[in-house]
Amino acid sequence: MMRAKTAAAIGLVMLALAVSPFASPIRQDAQREAPRYSRIVSLVPAVTEMLFAMGAGGAVAGISSYDRYPPEALTRPKVGGLIDPDFERILSLRPDLVITYGTQSELIDRLRRANIGIYNYEHAGLADITATLRSLGQRIGRRAEAERLAASLEQHLADVRARVAGRPRPRTALIIGRELGTLRGVHASAGVGFLHDLLETAGGIDVFDDVKRQSLQVSTEVLLARAPEVILELHPPEGWTPEKIARERAVWQQLPSLPAVRRGRIHILTDHRLIVPGPRVGDAARMIADLLHPPSLPSNR
Amino acid sequence: MLEAVDLHFSYGAAHRRRASPAHAAAPRSVVDGVSLTIPRGGLVGLLGPNGSGKTTILRLLAGTLRPQRGRVRLGGRDLTVLSRSEIARRLAVVPQETQLAFEYTVLEIVLMGRYPHLGPFEVEGPEDLASALRALEATGTGDLADRPFHTLSGGEKQRVVIASALAQLDPASRHAAQASGPDGRLLFLDEPTASLDLRYQIEVAALVRDLHARHDITVLLSTHDLHFARTVCSDVVLLSRGRVLDHGAPDRVLTPASLGELYGIDPAVAAPLLR
Amino acid sequence: MSHGLADARVLPGTPLRRGVPIVFLCFAAMVIAVLAVPFVGSTPLQFTRVFSRDIPFSENVDAQIFFVARLPRALAAALVGGTLAAAGVVFQGLLRNPLATPYTLGISAGASLGAMVAITLGAALPFGGVASASLAGAFVAVVIVYALARARHSGLSTTVLLLAGVTLNAFFSALILFVQYLSDFAQTYRALRWLMGDLDVAGYAPILAALPLVGIAFAAFAWLARPLNLLSLGADAAGSRGVNVLRAQRVAFFSASLATGAAVSVGGPIGFVGIIVPHLVRLLVGADHRLVLPASIFFGASFLTMCDAVARTVMAPLELPVGIITAVIGGPFFLWLLLRQR
User: Fold this and answer.
1) What is the mean pLDDT of chain A?
2) CATH number of C19-32+47-340
3) Taking CB atoms and an 8 Å limit, are A179 and C41 in contact across chains?
């Protein structure tokens, strides 16, 4: 009799121990170190980079279909992205934490019902990148590494700002999309978002700053009226050969009165670091700063 | 003047023949071996129940449909060798009802009848306008010229369409070569009084007789109206299930027996209709 | 019953002649619109600077805005507006229905599908971009609709045309949704913007490319004007007056489809022009296609040019898609039409 009771008691305790990780509700602001996660699925490429950068790459069990960095991440299974997350695949990886976009309300609902931990990523400005690094680090129990990364990034950005301080700031159009081969359907960053913040950090002025939108479809007339001095075009890296870059740069010759066209300051950028608001944005800021303020020029013109 | 020889026609026959050649001979013919002659100056009535093929025969004789077998000759010439314009200058059709897609005026519709007399980019000239005015006068619709067609009564609409047909047949033209010769003109009417009130039935009937008598127009019409057939037509053709039952002068052809056979009724019932 | 028909008071001339002054008025309106509208916009222009010869063109912002941004746009709007209006008239005549539009028979659905595929596959296509792809899509739609309409009849049944067009619209719309589903976020956004219509052609090349197609279509329309009048009476009635009905229907179908395809390839599927303008023009000049067609071209050109000027000015630097302006005008217009007929 005694043995059966002991066995039952031990069984219960073991059961309780086994179940306890699954029983924890979402507490993003836990005071003490939150439990570590060993199977993280990330739908957000920026966060995937952050996880690997703070040394938690081993815990990453699944990534989004749009991840491209770091190379080790690409060995993990892909589970979709912002518009098309594959819930079944996510479940099949038995995650204990899923990084989702804040707008994926349906997915978040289903994960909650399945009692899987969630970290909501909100996409915003440059400053939020370091904030996300810190809160993520706290959540997964890598506070020290996250703090180091965040501080290093902030330092990097401060260095860039310092380098360009005092220089005249060129009026820049940051083009995030257009119909290739033509100047139709041109979309530009317009005063809000991390790209805009990068531009400001790198010592440039967003020529559409007053509009205060993440993106704006710009007509030819508006481009001519705003007369940017520098044009930065961002494109995903796939399929861009030097010939294609030269061709697309030449398309801007349709508007010869733009100062950027007259001075040849049209840059087509296909580096992945520029489109992911993750730990490598410091590099992105430096790249843009170098384009806007070529280091060969003396600092006060 | 218009001669039809051994006409055969069935809708969809061409399609069926492609599908199954073996059954090509078997389809139900709407017109099954019809031969008839419309003499110059005649006023011929086609009489028969619905489904007997009256409308189809009108369309075959007008050249709108091509028969699967048989020929139609206008003034001795086969319809298939005449151009559409040549046929249209001598043969006009008045349908039972006219539905317009857009709001044309009476004069515009009558002027449309001048189409076969004009080249592809020619605009109507004074002769065409005069022809239209004559047609309006002949049908008593002169003061309706600027009215939109859809505002007219049923009888007025029918008279306007007849005026349009008259303008079409009017030989006056700036092209001497096109002026139709002495062969006469044909007017087809598909159940001209069927959808009209009694008053308009009488009006249109009188108009048709008048046109035939005074304007030397040969008329072929299909009708249900026995009284009209007896009193107005010079010849009557009885049609039953795509075949000609009899044709000739109304007094001889329209008998209780023939009506009984035509409509599937007891001759005794038909007799009072002929009194 | 005749009342002095020889009297000149009643009929001063054929109805055709009476409508000609209004056609000229519409032409004048078009010319004025195209010349004046480039001076209107969110950036004020100085007339003297625009035409000044002292400043080299590549430095003259005013001249650049006028000649590179606004004038091509006004010309494109005139071209697309006039073409869609005329195509609307021809389709209404062909289908004998004043509610028909250039998009009823599925041509714009085909053009849209072509554009979607180009936007999604993007770099994969070797040939010239979204405009050519949309033209190709329109062509496919035309071929399918025509084949369907001819399958069961030796003639060209307008009922079957209509059914084929409606079916094709539904089918292609489903395919468009499918292609959008496959595309990523940026492509979906670009595709949606294309569907809303965009006349910012940024140069004369798209206009020149579409011009030969529109020219052929308009030549066909000139020939079609009178046969369309007669077709309004019915296919049989037209045939008995000497019209080659099958040929007229074929010419109408293909020329109006060509015109629609060309217009959509330049500016996207802009709605309401193809139905508002024919209606308004008929109210002004009557139903004779020899007046309605040219008047619709001129009126449609003026109309869309002005709508586009509003679209690019009203919320600058944001641009309203021009299709929204035409819809905002078109919706109440239709209500008014409906109420008026009661």
Assistant:
1) 85
2) 1.10.3470.10
3) no
State which of A140, A158, A176 marks the end of a domain: A158
Nearest CA-CA partner of B59 in B24, B7, B118: B7
Q: At what angle do helices B198-214 and B154-169 cross, to 10 degrees?
A: 20
pLDDT digits (tens, 9 = 90+) for B19-72: 555 544 555 678 888 888 888 888 999 988 887 888 888 888 998 888 888 889
Residue in this structure with the two tokens 């007053």, named with its chain if needed: A210
Residue A269: inside a domain = yes
Q: Give the tokens for residue A86.
A: 């594959």
If asked whether residues A88 and A179 sit together in one domain, one would say no
CATH, residue A50: 3.40.50.1980
CB contact under 8 A, C240 and B137: no
Chain B residue numbers with beta carbons less than 8 Å from the beta carbon of C10 are 145-146
Domain count, chain A: 2
Tokens found for residue C177: 């949704």
Please give the structure tokens belonging to residue A137.
């680090």
**What tokens were used for A162?**
């310092």
Domain that holds residue A52: 22-158
Q: Which of A225, A112, A233, A137 is CA-nearest to residue A177? A: A233
Q: Is A96 helix (H, G, I), strand (E, B) or coil?
A: coil
Average pLDDT, chain B: 84
- What residues does each domain of chain B span? 2-274
Do A286 and A222 share a structural domain? Answer: yes
Domain B2-274 matching CATH 3.40.50.300: the answer reads yes
Which residue on chain C is closest to B65 by alpha carbon?
A: C236
Looking at the complex, report in whole angstroms how far the Cα of residue C245 sits from the nearest Cα belonging to chain B. 10
**Confidence (pLDDT) at A300:** 46
Residue A8 within a domain: no
Partner residue opposite C317 with nearest CB, options A187, A222, A262: A222
When computed from its CA atoms, the radius of gyration of chain B, rounded to whole angstroms, is: 19
- B: neighbours with 3+ CB pairs under 8 Å? C
The nearest CA of chain A is from the CA of C270 a distance in Å of 16
Tokens at C12, concatenated: 């001063």
Tell me: the pLDDT tens digits for C34-75? 999 999 988 888 888 888 888 888 778 888 889 888 999 999
Chain segment B227-266, per-residue pLDDT in tens: 888 888 889 998 888 888 888 888 888 888 888 888 888 8
Q: Which of B100, B124, B168 sits opposite C241 (nearest CB)?
A: B168
Q: For residue C3, what pLDDT is reported?
A: 38
Is pTM beyond 0.90? Reply is: no
Q: In the A/C pair of chains, how many CB contacts fall below 8 A?
A: 89
pLDDT value of position A62: 92
